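Give me the fold.
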Amino acid sequence: MKHLLPTSTSAEVRDTNAQVAVVPVGSFEQHGNYLPLITDTVIAATICDELAAAYPLFQLPPLTLSCSHEHSGWPGTVSISARTLYSLVTDITDSLTRSGLSAFVLVNGHGGNYTLSNIVQEANAHGTRMALFPTGPDWNDARTAAGLDSTMHEDMHAGEIETSILLHAHPELVKDGYEAADWLADDRRYLLVKGIKGYTSSGVIGRPSLGSAQKGKAVLNSLVHSFGDVLNVLSQR
């Protein structure tokens, strides 16, 4: 199994001379009966690993608990408050600033971490260079590049894209059953009130049966390409 944590030594970090840190933010929440609770953490860490292989970055270990309140009620799901996530991320970036890092990218693997957008906006307003990645357009570009069949809206949770990334990067974490677990719930207008349980009994909203390792590899390749634009934007601030 590949490492989910960065293994660089202090000397290796020094020699990289990276000026940009990537902070993977995952979650610990249900992903149906075939993907692990750490799915979002694995995806965020995998993206960071791919980015660090292509660009000079300081790769941090992932934050493994975040805002998963919409998944309340499923066994194993654990959440922290938005204010705690805000404090964790700002404490980390403050520490990195004192260490000489000049820019930061929050690599988010969980769509429910809405507060990360506010953190990035506030940081830039106060003179700290920070970005959130991947954003919606990055994911859409990756879906197109990989030839995914489902849309980002219908493929909300434990669907085609998440299953594909794990089938490519960590196939040992994907259990049997994803081939017959498709469930669509496109009208989710009261998601913040009802939570995921208001729209699915399995925990799945999407089409995992369409997932493949080939698609997962293509998604990651597209994200690595898109990240170059993020670095360009940060360098201009």
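The beta strands are 20-25, 58-59, 103-108, 129-133.
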